[in-house]
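Q: I'm teaching a short session on how sequence maps to structure, and I want students to see two examples side by side rather than one. Could you give me a first protein with its sequence written out and its structure tokens following it? Keep the formatting plain so it prints cleanly on a handout.
A: Of course. Example one:
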Amino acid sequence: MSMKRTKKATATTRGSSSETSFGFNPPDQVVPTWDVAVGALGADGFIAYAPAQTYKRDTLLDHAKFGRGKVLAVDGGRIEVLFNDGVKKLAHGVS
């Protein structure tokens, strides 16, 4: 007879808006605040976010739920984007 064991919980906090993981491809410099990196920019230059598209670092995105943001890091099929309410991980290049 085999017993299933549950995985031991780790002491990490996920989903915190103040948390920045940058577990992959970290930016070269200190992460700027949203006001400096995105908020001061005009509406020109932002492209609508779509998971099927691929993005590069420093691309300006307009997300339907999170608003305007800037791509901080890219790793394969994931990007980390700085939004007004924190850094979010999003998919990209999904077909």
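Q: Perfect. Now a second example for contrast.
A: Example two:
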Amino acid sequence: MKINEIAFFAYAVSDMKKSRAFYEGVLGLKPNSDFDGSGNPNWVEYDIGTTTLGIGCAPGMWEPSPKGASAALEVENFDDALATVKTKNIPVVMGPHDFPSCRMIVIADPDGNRLTLHKRNKK
């Protein structure tokens, strides 16, 4: 078996309206064309570069977990991302950190799922 790429990351959420307000309103993501108002109301996908981030609501089968997997989202401007986190009072799990190769902060969505906002340093 050969794996070529990551097709998508997905997070379980408990409230699609609240979660979409966070992912679309705070992070500025746009649902992909398959889910632009006509898709499954319990699943939404956001294309980010060549990868997709999905959120889904399936109580009793798939529950949110603040200790589960984490997606790292590459931001265009780290200072702008930090300002948004502060302005919107987004829970910070870790950081912000400045490393030789990058800057990053780990935040939580409304269900406590962890997201890393990340910016690679120029080489």
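Q: What should students look for in example two?
A: Point them to this: Helices lie at 16-26, 78-87. Also worth mentioning: The mean pLDDT is 87.
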